[in-house]
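Example 3.2
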Amino acid sequence: MNSLMVPVPEAALGRFIKKSQELQISVPTLLEQVSHNLDSLLPGGEQESQQVTMQVSAVPATAPTPASVPQRRVRIRQSPVLAEAIDRAKQLSSGDEFSLFKLYEHDWDRLPSPRVFGRVFRNVLERQGVAKYVGNDKDVGMAKYRRL
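Structure, written as C-alpha cells:
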C-alpha cells in the first residue's frame, strides 16, 4: 500500500479540526469519509483509493485547546503593524470613510494574516473610539469604517 503526503494550509487544517470536533471523529477518519464520498462520485475511484492511503502530517495528535487558539490574535494586538494601522486611521479627518486595504494599499503584503488582522483591527478601532464599522466597501470587498 502506498502513502501520499498532502501539504495542508493552516486555514484548511483549522476547518478539518473544527469539523472533526463537530462530528466527534478524528481528523484522519474525517479525511477517509471525504475520500470515500469523492470516490463514490468518480467512476473507478474506489479501486484506486484502496491502493493509496492518505496521511496528514500537519495534524496534531490532539485538537488545540481553547487557550491556544487566540495566540495569533494576541501576537497581532502586540504588533507594531497594528499600532501603525491605528495611527493611520487616527490621521484621517472626522467623517472620512476608509477600509484597511485603503490604509495599506501599497503595503498589503506586510500584514500578518490579513483576515485575522482585520478582525483585531476592527475590535481595537471600535474599543478606542477611533472609527465605527459602517458596512462593506464594495470596491475591495472588505469592511468599511467611518472616522469618528
